[in-house]
């Protein structure tokens, strides 16, 4: 026990997203933008959202209980729990403390950790904290847990179709099938106003969409170059796109992921890396003298690099895009939902593969880091993680609602945000059994949750109560 644990990383994962969703194609027609703007222009298929029954706390209660149950982990075995979220429900009481209800039931209150917040980066900060704990001399031999939970909602306007919602729980420990290559990472942090939430009376962010795209790409460049430099120093050889099997990006919408991978191809070209063949070099040569400012603004470069990147994108990125395209931006959970898509699509062929992850949170904080995968042994194996997450069934069993119903829900949630003294709908027919839901916020703003019972087919109030007392 103690420090120097080997292959610390993710042992197990569970994902939960709301069963209510709206098709992007239907939203286009409803809003009256040109056909294809959200589906092709942003690259998004569908958007999941919380109804009045769900929020970031209920989703994380669901993800954590399901993870513990499905992998057979005793809640007493958890020694640290950290949450990443940018969805503010309370300015003081952490989401982590709500999750303690699960552990208090088993008399385990000896659990370190609270919440981390910085836009979509909080989940990565939480993950690093827990991994560092397992690698440190204060580790007591128990597992760590990381939860990323967010509901991404925007005011009416161009950003609204980039919403989404989900919670992901990850079990952390040594000898993990998803192990950190801790030395290979690069960060870029700086002060910008690209996306922020200064209005505490509203759940909606203030967003400078174009600036956020440029900040994301600048951060990507910087993190990639730093990771390459560290790799070269340690390994004594150049790092290029050929040295990793998959690239997973934080995904506000899929188009930005396409642009990001194309940008890495251009950076490899500028670094004269072996991953870029002669034909690609010829296509990118006209842009080699652009200043970096000019290069972010050049549409021609964007087109040329996307053409050059196309086949590598299909191989190394496309398998990671399923859940973000189907669910939307999940803020802190987005990057890990993209990674979950890879496990879902390729679980039987991932042994030995290297995966590069890029985490970005506006404001801004960003890190690129590396995982080394191996199949592992049951229950903590890549194939079992894919089985437990059961992504295809969860996607298929969702309920599509009309854009009108979606807008109506957004209006109700605007009205409820920061509110007290209300009970939620008794109609829980749309949420799956085993799911936690919000029942009430009382006159002192205290929130009450129940779990939908396994045999609950009616709308009767017969769930298990979690009331925090
Ligand atoms: C991304 C965002 C700026 C787009 O809003 P917008 O300015 O109305 O959209 P645009 O006019 O740029 O159109 C988006 C894309 O769709 C394309 N498009 C528009 N109509 C189209 C159509 N009918 N068919 C196909 N493509 C279309 C545009 O050409 C553009 O593509 P490009 O990015 O390759 O240029 C907006 O959704 C937003 O602010 N989202 C939140 C930002 C965010 O998540 N930031 C966090 C980053 S970490």
TrEMBL record:
Residue span, Hydroxymethylglutaryl-coenzyme A synthase N-terminal domain: 6-177
Q: Matching Pfam families, A to Z?
A: HMG_CoA_synt_C (PF08540), HMG_CoA_synt_N (PF01154)
Keyword Lipid biosynthesis in record: yes
Q: Lipid metabolism among the record's keywords?
A: yes
Keyword line: Lipid biosynthesis, Lipid metabolism, Steroid biosynthesis, Steroid metabolism, Sterol biosynthesis, Sterol metabolism, Transferase
Q: What is its EC number?
A: 2.3.3.10
Query: Which GO terms of the molecular function aspect are on file?
Result: hydroxymethylglutaryl-CoA synthase activity
Location of the Hydroxymethylglutaryl-coenzyme A synthase C-terminal domain = 178-452
Superkingdom of source: Eukaryota
PROSITE patterns according to UniProt: HMG_COA_SYNTHASE
Binding annotation for CoA = 212, 255, 259
SUPFAM superfamilies named in the record: Thiolase-like
User: What positions belong to coiled-coil segments?
Assistant: none
Q: What class of enzyme is it?
A: transferase
Which family is this sequence assigned to?
Belongs to the thiolase-like superfamily. HMG-CoA synthase family.
Please give the function described in this protein's UniProt entry: Catalyzes the condensation of acetyl-CoA with acetoacetyl-CoA to form HMG-CoA.
Q: What is this protein called?
A: Hydroxymethylglutaryl-CoA synthase
Q: Could you tell me which species this protein originates from?
A: Macleaya cordata (Five-seeded plume-poppy)
């Amino acid at each position: 026990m103690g420090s120097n644990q080997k292959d610390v990383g993710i042992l197990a994962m569970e994902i939960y997203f709301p069963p209510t969703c709206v098709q992007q194609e239907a939203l286009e027609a409803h809003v009256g933008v040109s056909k294809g703007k959200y589906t092709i222009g942003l690259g998004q298929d569908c958007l999941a959202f919380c109804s009045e029954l769900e929020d970031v706390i209920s989703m994380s209660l669901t993800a954590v209980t399901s993870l513990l149950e499905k992998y057979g982990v005793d809640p007493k075995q958890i020694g640290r729990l950290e949450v990443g979220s940018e969805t503010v429900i309370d300015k003081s009481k952490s989401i982590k403390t709500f999750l303690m209800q699960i552990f208090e039931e088993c008399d385990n209150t000896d659990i370190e950790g609270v919440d981390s917040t910085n836009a979509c980066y909080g989940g990565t900060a939480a993950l690093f904290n827990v991994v560092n704990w397992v690698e440190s001399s204060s580790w007591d031999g128990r597992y760590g847990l990381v939860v990323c939970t967010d509901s991404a909602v925007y005011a009416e306007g161009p950003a609204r179709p980039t919403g989404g919602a989900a919670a992901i729980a990850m079990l952390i420990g040594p000898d993990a099938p998803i192990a950190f290559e801790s030395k290979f990472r690069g960060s870029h942090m700086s002060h910008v106003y690209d996306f922020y939430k200064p209005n505490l009376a509203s759940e909606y962010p203030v967003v400078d969409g174009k600036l956020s795209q440029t900040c994301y790409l600048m951060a990507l460049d910087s993190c990639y170059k730093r990771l390459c430099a560290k790799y070269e120093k340690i390994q004594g050889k150049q790092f290029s796109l050929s040295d990793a099997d998959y690239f997973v990006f934080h995904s506000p919408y899929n188009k930005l992921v396409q642009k990001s991978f194309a940008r890495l191809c251009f950076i490899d070209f500028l670094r004269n890396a072996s991953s870029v063949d002669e034909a690609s070099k010829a296509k990118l040569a006209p842009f080699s003298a652009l200043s970096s400012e000019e290069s972010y603004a050049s549409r021609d470069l964007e087109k040329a690099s996307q053409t050059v990147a196309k086949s590598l994108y299909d191989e190394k990125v496309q398998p990671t895009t399923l859940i973000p395209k189907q669910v939307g931006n999940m803020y802190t959970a987005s990057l890990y939902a993209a990674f979950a898509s890879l496990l879902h699509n390729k679980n039987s062929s991932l042994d030995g593969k290297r995966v590069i992850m890029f985490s970005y949170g506006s404001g801004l904080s960003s890190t690129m880091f590396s995982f080394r995968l191996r199949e592992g042994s049951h229950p903590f194996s890549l194939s079992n993680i894919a089985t437990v997450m059961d992504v295809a069934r969860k996607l298929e069993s969702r309920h599509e609602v009309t854009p009108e119903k979606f807008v109506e829900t957004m209006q109700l949630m605007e009205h409820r945000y920061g509110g007290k003294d209300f009970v939620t709908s008794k109609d829980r027919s749309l949420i799956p059994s085993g799911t936690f839901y919000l029942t009430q916020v009382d006159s002192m703003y205290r929130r009450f949750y129940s779990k939908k019972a396994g045999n609950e087919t009616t709308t009767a109030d017969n769930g298990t109560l979690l009331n925090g007392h």
